Amino acid sequence: MMMKALVSNRNIGTRVLNLASGKSFGKGVELQDLSIPTLSSQEILVKVHAVALNPTDFKHIDIISPRNAIIGCDYAGVVTSVGKEAPGGWKVGDRVAGAVHGGLFPDRGSFAEYLKVDGDLAWKIPDGIKDEEAATYGVSAVTAMLALNARLGLPWADDAVDVEGDNNDAQQTPNARTILIYAGSTCAGLFHVQLAKLAGYTVVATASPRSFDLVKSYGADTVYDYKSASAVQDIISAFPNISSAVDCYSEGKSTEFCTKVLKATGGRKVITLLDMGKSSTPGVEYELIMAYTLFGRPFAWLQPVGPKFAAIPSDRTALARFYANLPRLISKLKPPPIRLIDGGFDGILMGLDDLRQGKVSGSKLVAKL
Ligand SMILES: NC(=O)c1ccc[n+]([C@@H]2O[C@H](COP(=O)([O-])OP(=O)(O)OC[C@H]3O[C@@H](n4cnc5c(N)ncnc54)[C@H](OP(=O)(O)O)[C@@H]3O)[C@@H](O)[C@H]2O)c1
Prior knowledge:
This protein is α/β, with parallel strands linked by helices and 369 residues long. It has helices at residues 12-21, 55-64, 131-134, 139-151, 157-160, 187-198, 212-217, 231-238, 254-265, 313-329, 344-356; strands at residues 2-8, 29-35, 43-52, 74-82, 95-99, 114-118, 122-124, 178-182, 202-207, 222-225, 242-247, 269-272, 285-288, 299-300, 308-309, 338-341, 364-368. The chain has two domains: 2-137 and 335-368, Medium-chain alcohol dehydrogenases, catalytic domain (Quinone Oxidoreductase, Chain A, domain 1); 143-293, NAD(P)-binding Rossmann-like Domain (Rossmann fold, 3-Layer(aba) Sandwich), CATH 3.40.50.720. Strand 9, helix 7 (212-217) and strand 10 form a beta-alpha-beta unit. Helix 2 packs across helix 11 (344-356). Bound molecules: NADP nicotinamide-adenine-dinucleotide phosphate (NAP). Belongs to the zinc-containing alcohol dehydrogenase family. Keywords: Oxidoreductase.
């Protein structure tokens, strides 16, 4: 059986040119008819109903994706086939969502009519949650879990929260610790803010003034304008005990901003979402995380010269735990504001262009297929 999918088609020369110039030459992707992915015994097949867009999708198209890779990570849909030993207790017809490692493989990606995914790395959409909402708990959400719970060791939402009721003891802990979430209005940032609050932390965030109310409505205790010349000092004065930071922007001077705060408050680690090199501040280290390590498989970019990444089994375990508990946590973990885009696959390409041009603020683009 065949399906339609958005597939990368750039050669290595153009990708290197894009990397060097910061531009995007050519379209880089085309709609193709492909065979529906073949399942391993551990996997399920999903008919995709909605997809959410991430900056990583256009970055893959422009720079990382080899030819013939299916683009796209986040999805929501319905199970149409179940591998013989697939974990998760799936049945045909179950509603399902999650993220896959799109942009690198010819048979794995969400901007397609069908996708395959390991049975324990997807979550069951509860009644009352729409596909377009469910699709947003992909890369942005799992990155927040990876940064906060798996790497910084914040209490897991399923441990810290009585997910069946309204009682949230963690939020009433008198000596709650404090974390800085830089760029709290990014979709990744909104999930970081929420998971840090569920872990009982005081959350100090940065954003543009236009996003202050949004970030506060997701739980941030205080929000500072990252463009203000006094923001670093204001944060240090008001919160002299910040123990760690996640830089959800990780470009320009954002990580340096976080480092200045932590140096004064005694914090030791800034998690970054893009490669910001090494910290030049003694006592404060940078740790780059990548959502792709959650999928449990090694991978490589820009072969044969680019970097190789080992599988990190503990990250895979973390993703399985997060998605197993998400159906019960969902009432405590809001999706980002959603902007629905029309036009199916064409709409996805237009949405990716908006992301590429920095035209999206405080919302997640979602397309229905
Ligand atoms: N390593 C990983 O695994 C991983 C995972 C997820 C995301 N990422 C990366 O993290 C970044 C954020 O991703 P996302 O999907 O969360 O982004 P997003 O929602 O598309 O981000 C949009 C937001 O960026 C903020 N922004 C724009 N310019 C800024 C600046 N100069 N300084 C600070 N913030 C600025 C804007 O906030 P205001 O409107 O408030 O200014 C806007 O709301 C991207 O670079 C993405 O590739 C990496």
